[in-house]
Please model this.
Amino acid sequence: MNRVLVTGGAGFLGSHLCERLLAEGNDVICVDNLFTGNKDNIRHLMSNPYFEFIRHDITEPLYVEVDQIYNLACPASPIHYQHDPIKTAKTSVFGALNMLGLAKRVHARILQASTSEVYGDPEIHPQPESYRGCVNTIGIRSCYDEGKRMAETLFFDYHRQHGVDIKVMRIFNTYGPRMHPNDGRVVSNFIVQALKNEDVTIYGTGRQTRSFCYVSDLIEGMVRLMNSRDGFTGPVNMGNPGEFTMLELAEKVIEMTGSTSKIIFKELPQDDPMQRKPVIELAKKELGWEPSVVLEEGLEKTIEYFKTIVKNVR
Model:
């Protein structure tokens, strides 16, 4: 049994990770300040004697004894991270410093949940880990993009300077049950709008592309990375290389929900990337990992989840 700390553990990804770690027999400490996380995501875990929830903000130090740390804490959707951009940057930077300091003190292995946003609006397609990105340092997305880039820097500096055992993954668009219904991401937006028979909103022409990874695939890759061989630090891309335009996704969601929604187009937000598609050869080679859930299957499960909560969406 490992003692495992999951920051952001009451969030979308964090709650699925806590579930997986408990199922494997670990002792799990879930830490979340509940800004975007939700106790409902972990309510079913509260009765497990090997699960502990701590309401805490990782911009402040945390003192626990653990073997592994998954650092997932940070608002991840533009609506949430732009709500308080300074706080977002502090969560990425100060949070990384505090968790790395903890890992150094207790000799824990630590995994950073980084993001494909470190690539910015990419000039290379698809994006390999060697690509250094094209990020606007002063734009409205910079608090998140640059915060995550700085967190990666800190992870590798702690590894080089202090010998901290690190793993860094770059997460591409992930979807599934427990997504926040008002997070502004395309999958949740389209499904909620379609279920309510409202106009489905596409920003820009709809020709911009994304790759969508179902949550169970992502969690599998995350756990494999944490338990990968000594000396393999990453960064490693994790996402589904299947590529779809926003228009294709909207049409698929409307069809699968049986919605009467119409598609409307609005102006593209500043610095919104035109293309996203991961190169996952490193994950295949080092972790034996690649996604197995196709988009239609994942959407079906996600739509069923949203059907249970959409009546409460405002």
User: Anything to note?
Assistant: The first strand starts at residue 3 and ends at 7. The chain has nine helices and 13 strands. The longest helix spans residues 85-106.
